[in-house]
Structure formats: structure tokens, C-alpha cells
Amino acid sequence: MTDAKRRGDAPPPKEGSSFADLAAEIDDLEPLEPGPRTARPTGENRPRDPARPGPDASPDPGSGEGLHFPDPDQPLLGRRSWLRDRDLRRLRRGQVPFDLTLDLHGDDLTSARRRVIDQLAASAEAGHACVLIIHGKGHRSRGGVARLRDALPAWLDDPALAGAVAACAPAMPEHGGFGAVYVLLA
Questions:
Q1: Are 69 and 75 within 8 A, CB to CB?
Q2: Given pLDDT bands bounded at 50, 70 and 90, which one contains residue 8?
Q3: What is the DSSP letter of 11?
Q4: Residues 14-37, buried b or exposed e (16+ Cβ, 10 A)?
Q5: Is pLDDT of 5 > 60?
Q6: pLDDT grade, residue 55 (50/70/90)?
Q7: Of 83, 118, 138, 166, which alpha carbon lies 20 to 30 A from 50's?
Q8: In a 3-state reduction of DSSP, which class is residue 112?
Q9: Distance in angstroms between the alpha carbons of the first and the last residue of the chain
Q10: Would you say residue 127 lies in a domain?
Q11: Which is nearest to 116 in space by CA: 104, 125, 127?
Q12: How far apart (Å, rounded) are the C-alpha atoms in residues 41 and 184?
């Protein structure tokens, strides 16, 4: 018995068959238009995916749609349940171009929270894909504690941003490292 039959898979392709032969067997297959693939220029607004909630959507409290922060050792790594693993990996690697940088240096907790919520809601409404928030490393804070960094997870999970924030991840060293966070917008 072959491996394909044991697993219940389709039989392997016949020797000498081409992709064109395989494609001819698939119903409703539409060929792509020939041409080069082009990346969207940085800063270009992306169309909103109608399957994802918009920035004005209010979450159902029982739906569990809040940001999930699975690793206590990485408090700024969070995501919504519907976000694809691939998109989170790209965010973590710094591969999602950010459209805006929000620098919170010098802000107290109250003004920083207000700026984060206002800017992220406006950016999501404008169709931006990602925002880089620079919160600092806490070197100049009292006691050397990074209070803004510690408060950010709660701010990003604020009900006012329920439909705006899809995920967050610590920034790559070239974008601020431990002193910054990427925020992927819905």
C-alpha cells in the first residue's frame, strides 16, 4: 500500500504530467493576468477588509475579542483571535511598514494614554496599516521603571480601540527595540 493511500490523500500525479495538465482538471480555475508583482508604496492607505470590525465597532463582552497577551515575559506581544499567524510573524519581524510614528517621550501617563487612543483610532479610520509607538526604556523615569511601557497593553486593549487594534509586538532594534512597539491596525 502506498503512503498516499494509507493517509487517505489523492494519488500522486502521474509521471510526466505538467502543471497545465493538472490545472485543466480543476473546475473554475481562472488564470492570473501576466505581469510583475508590485508592492504597495509605503504610506499608501489600504482598503478596509469588510470581514474585520471597523474602528467604531464595539466588541461583544462575552465574545473574548479582546487582545490576548499570552506570554507574561513579553507583555507587549498581543493579538486578536482572528488575526492570522502569518500577519503576527510579519509584525514581529518588522516587515509591516508603519505609516506613523507616535513618540511618547516626556508625556505623563494621562496625556500619553489620551494620545495613544486618539492617534490609533484616527489612524485606523484613515486606513493606515501600522503605527510605531515609541514609549522609551524608562531610563529617565523615577526609579528607572518604564511606566509607559507597562501601561501600554491596557491602553491597546481599551474598549475605545476594540475595532482598531489587531495586534502589537515589540519593535526591532532598528526601530527602537525595547523602547518601542509596533501596533497593527484592523
A1: yes
A2: low
A3: P
A4: eeeeeeeeeeeeeeeeeeeeeeee
A5: no
A6: very low
A7: 118
A8: helix
A9: 49
A10: yes
A11: 104
A12: 17
Domain count, the chain: 1
Any idea what the Cα angle at residue 60 is, between residues 170 and 153, rounded to 5°?
A: 20
Do 128 and 166 contact (CB within 8 A), yes or no?
A: no
- 113, three cell numbers: 494614554
Residue range 134-175, pLDDT digits in tens: 988 766 666 555 688 888 988 998 888 888 999 999 999 999
The C-alpha cell of 41 is what? 508604496
Domain holding 120, by residue range, is 78-185
What are the CA-CA distances from residue 185 to residues 46, 77, 78, 131 (Å)?
11, 14, 12, 8
| pTM score, whole prediction | 0.62
